[in-house]
Every structure is written in structure tokens, then in C-alpha cells.
Amino acid sequence: MEQKEVRALLEQVSSGELDIDEAMLKLKEAPFEDLGFAKPDYHRALRQGIGEVIYGAGKTPEQIHDIVASMVQQGQKSILITRMSSEAAEAVEQDFIIKYDKYSRIGLVGEIPEPDGIGKVVVAAAGTSDLPVAEEAAQTAECFGNEVIRLYDVGVAGLHRLLAHREEIMTARVIVAVAGMEGALASVIGGLADCPVIAVPTSVGYGASFGGVSALLAMLNSCASGVSVVNIDNGFGAGYLASMINHMEGKR
């Protein structure tokens, strides 16, 4: 049950359309189910505003299928699966309509909601090799109700390509900057933008990049204010955080 549904339920009680016992019955539904190999969290959307996401790596296609089935049965309208294999997508497709992107390994069962974020989320990627991680971030943000603007192949090796998009950068609500190699893109964007910048180091680069550690350390040491950093190749984490920022109003 999502926060919006709980609010609607309480409004029905307040207006007399629903009695207290009926409302209690709806709220008392089990918060999770033990499938033996997994315990899907059905109250995640109630607590956090966003339903549970399935991390697909390491799970068998059958396990992913059964987790999806349990979440659908409990009424979750949009189910996001990250790091999903094509074999798992085929298993889920046997019983459910799934949108699967082999490039980013993102799967979505259900509908992408209409954007209801405050502003726009910009996802900027330094190079074409960074796009699988960038698309993971972009599609995650879209699945959570955000309008996403993609700025791809705008790395610092050709700085004029990034500067050609100054308007999008300066009007964004939050920016996700995805880069490997030396990870300089996040610092440059941080020096141009007046919004939070979420830096995503990627494992793209030659030997001395140490599988993304060089980019990670460079981003952590950014001299630009307002830059935060997620883990190497964690496009999902960046897209999730960007959505949270884009949906935050004046909370007290």
C-alpha cells in the first residue's frame, strides 16, 4: 500500500465512507511474505514512498519471477528490477508484461507513472562507455515519476559539448553526473549548477583507473560544493536519490 492510498483510506474514514474496522483490516495486511528464499517487503512504499525494488544480480530467473508474482498479487503497480539478465526477463515475461532494456539491464513490470516531481532530473554521462550506468540512473528516475533530460557524451575531453547545455544544467532540480577515467565531469558540473549533483563513478578506464576507484576518489575529493558521491557503477542509487530530492518540498 502506497502513502497516497493510505491518505485516501483515512479520508474515507473521516468522511464516513469507510468504518474503522474495515480500515484496520486493510492496514493489518502482512507487511512481508516469507517465500523461503526471499521476504518481499509490501510496506516499503508506505514507509518510504517508493515500493521495494528487486536487485536481480545473483538471483535465478525463477526466483525473480516468484518475487514479482508476490508483489503483483499484493497490488504493487510498478515493479523495478535492476541488474536483470535476459533469461530472467524471459521467465517473468511468461506471466507478466515486462519492459526490459538489455543495455541497462533494467526491467519494469507495470506502468511508468506520470512525472510528478518538482522539476527536472538531468543525467549527464561523460562518454558512450558510461551509458549503461547512466541509463540505469535515468530509467530508475523515470520509473519513480520524474522528467529526465539526458546529456550524453559531454565529457571534459571536449568541454564545449557540455557548455552547449548550460541552460539544462542551470535549470535542473538535481543532476546525476556519470563518469569514469578521472571522473572530472562531476566537479565541472558542480561548478556550474545551483542544485545538488550526484556523482556516479564508473569502472570505465585503463589500468590505472583501478576499476573505477580513481574516479571514485576524484569525485570524493571534488572542490565543487554540493557534490555527493554514490558507489562505483551505482546508477540505481543515484537515480533513486535524485527522485527523492526532486519530490522533496519544504518538509519540517
From TrEMBL:
Q: Cite the InterPro entries for this sequence.
A: P2CMN_synthase_LarB (IPR039476), PurE_dom (IPR000031)
Q: Name the Gene3D superfamilies on file.
A: 3.40.50.1970
Top-level taxonomic group: Bacteria
Q: Where is the PurE domain?
A: 119-251
Any single Pfam family the record assigns to this protein:
AIRC
Name listed for the protein in its UniProt record: Nickel pincer cofactor biosynthesis protein LarB
Q: What is the lineage of its organism?
A: Bacteria, Bacillati, Bacillota, Clostridia, Lachnospirales
Gene that encodes the chain: larB
